[in-house]
């Protein structure tokens, strides 16, 4: 007896389904690759733009400080004070006093005037969102510079001359560096700086990725050869195809069995109802001594079966669906219950929690936070609210009011992801926070990129001017610690000390650190 063969119609259906899913997989994989390429290059364009904005913010703050100190004149004492100010700020190369029309009256370093090939009239300068601040290109022998003009009164103004270092633009991935160009220009098209590995080589059939500043007349462009872009990150094509086919097969099986499909949001709701979201604790430590002075709590999803869901698999969905608020209160309540004895025993120990801007601005946020902390019998001054910069604060005035209310009750406020987020330095100043947290992006490159060191030093200097503390995130090596200390950073967190830990392991780490410190102190006494 011959085995039964599958009917021809079933074979045809399987073939058609395979063909359909193969086509869908191809389109999905191609679209995914193009989207990832565009997203990564858009992020890199934004990094160049934000680095440039930071430099201008810093220059504007320096000019405001000089004007506030009454140094807007050409007396020898004023010029000497301005030279000292410039010496202490590596980003600013010179400061000049100019007339209302922009013509130069005097310069802190008069010899730099000899390098100018020309000087722009005020009418040709580019305005910014700050009406008292103008930008213009300073043509000089050996390379151009950026002029930042700040009006003092209707008769005169101060100008900071910023050197444009092309290394600031050396950000492209290794696969694209030899086939790309990064440009920075004013909105009128005047080029300020560029980076290309081989300046004598012309790009062939390049694709442009542009981004303009919302605050300054700046525009950044990344140009990449299309032939190289077509093969960049293409290794994800086949995995994406396999994923599309697997999802198609799974979808077909589920449909064939007529099983009701529930969305991932419903899964989040079940996890919240069961209390499955738990805090993990990552230490914050003093860079010079290694002493643990606080911790940041991070959400982890511990399912009933014991598996742990990584945060990137649920945090974005929780934020977009609004579940992040309930999740935040759940992990804060659990963390306070666990850590309450330690917080009461060490009044200087700080507990930090992340809050997205929408949650910060939601009705009843301050009252709920106060009642949660009061119920735990913990001091408000030991709680740090970290507001992430990755989501833009649409209403800065309202946010500043909430931050002011939090500080009035004793809470501390930190701005997370500084340097890669949405806010400029002027917005950081307007928010009125206590602390800025330097993003891991800068810590990763601080030992290999001189421009990163300049940016970190600038952030530390600004924090000091605003009476803020600085914490560096993502520290992994002792070399990074030494580099951060040399820039003036005093506190940090990262895998060098510990990854985010469950409570039991975190307490064990605290006890171990204390024991080591006690033994060291005993040896010193002996």
TrEMBL record:
Transmembrane segments: 236-255
Catalytic activity of the protein: 3',3'-c-di-GMP + H2O = 5'-phosphoguanylyl(3'->5')guanosine + H(+)
InterPro entries per record: CSS-motif_dom, Cyclic-di-GMP_PDE-like, EAL_dom, EAL_sf
Keyword set includes Transit peptide: no
Keywords annotated in UniProt: c-di-GMP, Cell membrane, Hydrolase, Membrane, Transmembrane, Transmembrane helix
Cellular localization per UniProt: Cell membrane
Enzyme type, top EC level: hydrolase
EC number: 3.1.4.52
Membrane topology field: Multi-pass membrane protein
Domain named EAL: residues: 261-514
PANTHER family: CYCLIC DI-GMP PHOSPHODIESTERASE PDED-RELATED, CYCLIC DI-GMP PHOSPHODIESTERASE PDEF
Full protein name: cyclic-guanylate-specific phosphodiesterase
Biological source species: Bradyrhizobium iriomotense
């Amino acid at each position: 007896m011959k085995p039964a063969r599958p009917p021809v119609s079933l074979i045809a259906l399987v073939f058609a389904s395979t063909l359909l899913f193969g086509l869908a997989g191809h389109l999905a994989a191609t679209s995914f690759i193009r989207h990832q390429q565009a997203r990564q290059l858009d992020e890199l364009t934004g990094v160049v733009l934000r680095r440039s904005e930071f430099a201008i913010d810093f220059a504007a703050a320096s000019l405001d400080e000089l004007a506030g100190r009454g140094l807007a004149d050409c007396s020898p004492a004023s010029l000497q004070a301005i030279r000292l100010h410039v010496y202490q700020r590596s980003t600013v190369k010179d400061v000049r006093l100019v007339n209302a029309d922009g013509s130069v009256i005097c310069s802190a370093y008069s010899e730099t005037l000899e390098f100018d090939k020309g000087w722009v009239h005020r009418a040709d300068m580019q305005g910014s969102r700050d009406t008292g601040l103008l930008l213009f290109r300073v043509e000089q022998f050996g390379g151009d510079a950026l002029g930042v003009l700040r009006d003092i009164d209707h008769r005169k103004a101060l100008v900071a001359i910023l050197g444009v270092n092309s290394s600031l633009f050396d950000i492209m991935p290794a696969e694209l560096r030899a086939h790309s160009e990064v440009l920075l220009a004013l909105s009128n098209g005047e080029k300020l700086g560029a980076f290309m590995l081989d300046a004598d080589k012309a790009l062939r059939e390049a694709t442009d990725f542009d981004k303009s500043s919302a605050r300054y007349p700046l525009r950044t462009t990344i140009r990449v050869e299309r032939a190289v872009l077509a093969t960049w990150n293409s290794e994800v094509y086949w995995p994406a195809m396999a994923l599309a086919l697997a999802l198609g097969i799974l979808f077909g099986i589920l449909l064939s069995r007529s099983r009701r499909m529930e969305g991932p949001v419903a899964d989040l709701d079940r996890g919240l109802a069961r209390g499955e979201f738990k805090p993990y604790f990552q230490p914050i430590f003093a860079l010079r001594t290694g002493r643990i002075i606080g911790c940041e709590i991070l959400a982890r999803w511990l399912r009933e079966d014991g598996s742990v869901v990584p945060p990137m698999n649920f945090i974005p969905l929780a934020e977009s669906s609004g579940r992040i608020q309930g999740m935040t209160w759940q992990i804060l309540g659990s963390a306070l219950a666990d850590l309450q004895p330690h917080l009461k025993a060490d009044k200087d120990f700080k507990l930090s929690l992340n809050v997205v801007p929408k949650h910060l601005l939601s009705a009843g946020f301050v009252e709920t936070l106060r009642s949660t902390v009061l119920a735990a019998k913990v001091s408000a001054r030991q709680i740090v609210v970290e507001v992430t910069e990755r989501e833009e604060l649409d209403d800065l005035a309202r946010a500043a009011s909430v931050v002011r209310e939090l500080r009035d009750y004793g809470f501390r406020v930190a701005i997370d992801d500084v340097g890669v987020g949405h806010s400029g330095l002027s917005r950081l100043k307007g928010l009125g926070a206590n602390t800025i947290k330097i993003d891991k992006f800068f810590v990763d490159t601080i030992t290999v990129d001189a421009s990163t060191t300049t940016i970190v030093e600038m952030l530390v200097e600004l924090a000091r001017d605003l009476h803020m503390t600085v914490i560096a995130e993502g520290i992994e090596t002792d070399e990074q610690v030494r580099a951060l200390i040399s820039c003036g950073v005093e506190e940090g967190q990262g895998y060098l000390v510990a990854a985010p830990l469950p409570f039991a392991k975190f307490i064990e780490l605290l006890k171990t650190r204390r024991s080591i410190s006690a033994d060291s102190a005993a040896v010193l006494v002996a």
